[in-house]
Design brief:
Elements: H1 10-13, H2 22-29, E1 44-50, H3 57-65, E2 73-80, H4 86-93, E3 98-102, H5 107-116, E4 123-126, E5 131-133, H6 137-146, E6 153-162, E7 166-172, E8 189-195, E9 198-199, E10 210-214, E11 221-224, E12 227-233, E13 240-247, E14 252-260, E15 263-274, E16 279-285, E17 295-297, E18 300-302, E19 308-310, E20 325-326, E21 335-338, H7 339-345, H8 357-367, E22 371-382, H9 393-410, H10 413-441, H11 448-477, H12 482-485
Parallel strand pairs: 1-2, 1-4, 2-3, 6-22
Antiparallel strand pairs: 4-21, 5-22, 6-17, 6-21, 7-12, 7-14, 8-9, 8-11, 8-13, 10-11, 13-16, 14-15, 18-19, 20-22
């Protein structure tokens, strides 16, 4: 296992688009020397969890190898029983990486824990296999621990932006209300978005325009509101042709507009038709249209009803988050934690498997009186939902269940009971509405969402005794009251 440091080694000087070799990393790692002239002890351990991510690891690890630091660090990849040749890739192209092998998929929580429980460096740093760090990411992420007041920090978290750059498009169209059981104001139903012929529906950022993905996981669609903004990933430079496949309740016009190099006044505009039949329309956008970075996460928040959320999610990065500040939770992608504290807390909760494990750990970090600092200079570029599809059954099951587990462990009794009781009530309401709609339409009811929620309830109840014991341990060790911690919660 070769320690790495990028201040003077070849990996730091190599052009960003040129591959990094094992020799480069060895030379870079040897650049930092200890008091006796030998290699310095590693200051941090970077942990990457991988499951069938052979197509993602090269960009991530090449970015790790190019880090510009004044300290040595080591890189571990936890392989969660991949079957796609990930371990062979690591052995052949990245011999400086220590592979921590698991014989089964332990998820993000358990996979990280497999490595974290062995960490002996002062700091542990987590990064997803679908993220690419900027060269100064690691040094910036760890710098606050050595600054005045740093001894009160338990963790730091950086700025995560989506990997591609985007074109901002504003949409405007007349709306309609579907019926008495669906009071939404709907615009058009979009089932495909292409960029120069390539399908990008799952990569488009819809937060400010649609009601979320609907339909089957393999063929989702989005109903838009009457007005809003979407961000479409496009390559840098040159004109692009965008294709939209859509339909609506009747024939009407859709207006699309985008900025030019001098702002909204100098941009483009297109008036397009839509009707009951699904049709595809195309729009050409000139190469001068500005490309923007969009934020994935700048630290986390928890809402007053107990839902976790990414701070700054899908906001265009205009510098509004360029100041360091304390935040309530850290993102598991791009998080550094004081290792002694991690060992004391037992790291992530293995039962969570995937999602909310970082929010739960952050809550426990804060309960011990430690701060969590957002560091704007620690930048990762992230492929959104590369490892798991957002709103898939896997996603919904773990986010729903783990939110209830987290609140049971960490929140006040009032908030936890409110969320836990509300979930089965909402499940029953969804089931009744689904049956009523199917009866009126003389069709088979869509029972899968209700069955999925019943699975969530069953899994939560099986884990409830464990979570209640963890709740007791949380309270016994905490130095800050639950009610005080919940002053960080924000309204919708």
């Amino acid at each position: 296992m070769t320690e790495q440091a990028g201040t003077t080694g070849p990996a730091a000087r190599r052009p960003p688009d040129e591959p990094v070799t094992a020799a480069d990393v060895t030379a870079a790692g040897s650049a930092v020397r200890g008091p006796g002239g030998g290699p310095a002890e590693p200051y941090a351990t970077v942990v990457i969890v991988n499951w069938n991510g052979a197509h993602l690891l090269p960009a991530c690890l090449d970015g790790i190898a190019k880090q510009e630091t004044g300290f040595a660090f080591q890189t571990w990849v936890v392989d969660n029983a991949s079957s796609d040749g990930s371990r062979e890739l690591l052995a052949e192209r990245y011999p400086w990486v220590r592979v921590v092998a698991s014989d089964r998929n332990l998820g993000f929580a358990g996979g990280n824990n497999l490595a974290l429980r062995q960490v002996s460096t002062p700091y542990a740093v987590l990064v997803n296999n679908d993220a690419i760090p900027e060269p100064t990411w690691l040094a910036a992420l760890l710098a606050p621990f050595a600054e005045p007041g740093g001894r009160h920090l338990g963790a730091t978290t950086g700025k995560v932006v989506f990997l591609p750059r985007f074109l901002r498009i504003r949409l405007h169209t007349p709306t309609f209300v579907p019926g008495p059981h669906d009071s939404r104001d709907l615009g058009v139903r979009v089932s495909s978005v292409t960029v120069d012929g390539r399908e990008t529906l799952r990569e488009v950022l819809w937060e400010k325009l649609t009601y979320g993905a609907e339909g089957p996981a393999k063929a989702p669609y989005f109903w838009t509101r009457g007005e809003g903004e979407l961000c479409v990933p496009i390559p840098d430079g040159g004109p692009v042709t965008l294709g939209f496949t859509w339909a609506a309740e009747s024939r009407k016009q859709v207006t699309l507009s985008w900025d030019g190099p001098t702002g909204p006044g100098g941009g483009g505009r297109a008036e397009l038709a839509v009707g009951p039949e699904s049709t595809t329309v195309t729009v050409t956008v000139g190469g001068e249209a500005p490309r923007v970075d969009v934020i994935n996460n700048v630290g986390g928040i928890v809402l007053v009803d107990g839902y976790g959320a990414d701070r700054g999610y899908q906001q265009v990065d205009t510098g509004q988050f360029d100041q360091p500040e304390d935040v309530f939770t850290a993102c598991g992608n791009g998080m550094a934690i004081r290792a002694s504290l991690g060992h004391e807390l037992g790291w992530f909760d293995d039962a969570f498997f995937l999602y909310y494990e970082d929010t739960d750990l952050s809550w426990r970090i804060r309960a011990r009186g430690n701060a969590i600092r957002y560091v704007p200079g620690a930048v990762l570029r992230h492929i959104h939902s590369a490892s798991s599809v957002e709103w898939s059954p896997l996603f919904v099951f773990h986010t729903d269940r783990n939110r209830l587990l987290m609140l049971t462990k960490d929140a006040t009794a009032t908030l936890a009971l409110s969320a836990v009781v509300r979930y089965p009530v909402t499940t029953a309401s969804i089931a009744v509405r689904t049956l009523r709609q199917a009866w009126q339409a003389r069709s088979r009811p869509a029972v899968r969402p209700t069955l999925l929620r019943l699975r969530v309830i069953g899994s939560y109840l099986r884990l409830l005794p464990t979570m209640l014991r963890a709740r007791h341990e949380f309270g016994a060790a905490a130095t800050e009251r639950r009610a005080s911690l919940q002053s960080w919660l924000v309204g919708r």
